[in-house]
Amino acid sequence: MQPRQYIIIKWCIYSAFTLLLFLLQGCVLQYIRVRGVMPFLYPMLAGTIAIYEGRTGGAFFAVGLGALCDISRLGPAPGFFTIVFAVSALLIALLVEYLLPPSFLCALASVSITFFLTDMGRLLFYQSRGAAVEALLEVAVIEYLLTLPLLPLVHRWYRRLHRRLSEEY
C-alpha cells in the first residue's frame, strides 16, 4: 500500500470510529443526566487522538472535531470548540513528545487538559456575561466526572486502532 493510500485509509477509519462515538453521544449519553448535566465525549476524543498522532495529525483531527462540535452543539462563541480542541491537541502532543509516553496515564492527563481548557474558556465567556462562577464550576466538575468513566473504553479503542493501523504500514 502506498503512503498516501495508507494515510487516507487511516483517517477514514479514525473518522468512522469517531462518527460512532458521535452517535453514542447523541443517541445515548444525552439522556444520562446528573443535576441537568450530561457527559461530554468530544473533548475526550480530541485528547485521545492527539496522544497517538502527534502535533500535526492530532491538531488537524482536533480542528475537524471542533468544527463538527461547533456545528452540532451550541458553544459559547462561533469556533470556540475548534480553537480550544486545536490548542489542547498541540499541548497534549508536546506532553507526549517530552514528558509522558502514550499510556492510560497520559490519556487521563490529556482528557484533563482538554476539559480544563474547554471549561475555563466557557467559564470566562459566561462570567463576562454575568453568570455565577460557582454554578459554572459545578457544571464543569459534574461534566468531567460523568465523562471520565468512558475513558478506559475510548482510550482502549483508539489505542487498538492506532496499533492495528500502524502495523499494516
Describe the structure.
The chain has 169 residues and is an all-alpha fold. It contains six helices and no strands. Helix 3 (80-98) packs antiparallel against helix 4 and helix 4 (104-128) crosses helix 6 (151-167). It is globular and about 55 Å long. It starts with a helix and ends with a helix.
From N to C, what is the helix and strand string?
A: HHHHHH
Structural class, from helix and strand content? mainly alpha
Described by strand count, sense and barrel closure, the largest sheet is: none
**Shape by Cα distribution:** globular
Q: How many β-strand stretches?
A: 0
Estimated share of beta-strand residues = under 5%
Radius of gyration: 16 Å
Percent helix among the residues? over 70%
Ranges with pLDDT <50 over ≥5 residues?
Answer: none
Count of helices? 6
N→C terminal distance: 7 Å
Mean pLDDT: 89
